[in-house]
Amino acid sequence: MNLRIAKWLLMGGFLLCSSCLHLNVPPARLEFVSINHENYSSYDLRFTSDRNLIDLYEDHGRRGQIGTWIKCSLNGDPDFSVEHEIVLEASGIVSGMRLIEGDRRYEMFANISVENHAINDGRNYIRPVELVQILKPQEYIPCKVAITAFPFVAYYSKVMYMPASRFIAAIENPRVAPPRISLKQSDQPRSLLPSASVCIVRWRYELALGYDQIDSLGLCSDVPYAGMLASFAPSKTKLRIVSGSEETPAPFAAYTIIRGDGRLEPGITDEKGRTHEVGSIENETLRVIINKNLDVVERWTPWTDSVP
């Protein structure tokens, strides 16, 4: 759904309700987890909540939830009400959720865009270099989740404070898996295969350095939903490779998909220019290398359960 349409739906659900009901649920407590630069003015945000914000009303026996939105104020504006527009804002739909095992919290996922609403020429997205200058004088960025449902007044979470240093690090030092990792024999995971592939299985954020470090390595075969198990993954898709400016499918083209944890998955596109199925337990940024002899360009497809 277009972000602007979704935002108007959220506001409309609030404004059309003249004598709304209240959902008698305390404000959710949020904690920042991570932020990664997706592309240009788009960022992937993760945070935890003590409540399932996507199905909040249904979980409490109510219906009519319209949408779940997170807003972050880049200029110190403390008014997060749905009818108010923050001039310098980072916002997006909370679109994913998973229950943290062994915990009563939920990890929430949102793709946010940064915008300057003082500009009305249709190009109000804030460039990364401009965003860094906005963030540098600040220590924390306040954020809140707003949920609208009919016929209820808007529900708001407590304020979450995102470290500005983490936001800046996501722009200046994006996390990228190294193309190759060499380990001493004594450090290699045990395997029956002497040349078994090694993958990054966990990252660790280093505050002093300002970016993510490799925390743990393991066998690629131990990574969930690898290879033929991709079809059982919660998130799965096939990428479509197209060639030339006509964007026609590139059949039988050699490619290599680089996973976020460093795995290399080579293959040949089918007659419709589609790659093999890629599966993951969560949202993941992929890179694709194409045979240089082919005049092709990269195209990304969203996570989907099927490809037409």
Walk me through this protein's architecture.
- The chain has 308 residues and is mainly beta.
- The chain has 3 domains: 3-172, no CATH class; 186-222, no CATH class; 227-297.
- 11% of the residues lie in helices and 39% in strands.
- It contains 4 helices and 18 strands.
- Strands 1, 2, 3, 4, 5, 6, 7 and 8 form an 8-stranded antiparallel β-sheet that branches.
Question: Which H/E pattern describes the elements?
Answer: HEEHEEEHEEEHEEEEEEEEEE
What integer value in Å does the Rg equal?
22 Å
Number of helices: 4
| Count of structural domains | 3
Q: Would you identify the regions where 5 or more consecutive residues have pLDDT less than 50?
A: 293-308
Mean pLDDT: 76
Amino- and carboxy-terminal Cα gap: 20 Å
Number of strands: 18
Binned strand content: 35-45%
Helical fraction: 10-25%
SS-based class: mainly beta
Largest sheet: 8 strands, antiparallel
Quick synopsis:
With 308 residues, this protein is mostly beta strands.
Please describe the topology of this protein:
Layout: H1 3-15, E1 30-39, E2 42-49, H2 56-59, E3 65-73, E4 88-99, E5 106-116, H3 128-135, E6 140-149, E7 152-156, E8 160-163, H4 164-172, E9 198-206, E10 211-219, E11 235-240, E12 242-243, E13 248-249, E14 254-258, E15 264-268, E16 274-280, E17 287-290, E18 296-297
Antiparallel strand pairs: 1-2, 2-5, 3-4, 3-6, 4-5, 6-7, 6-8, 9-10, 11-16, 12-13, 12-18, 14-15, 14-17
Helix pairs in contact: 3-4
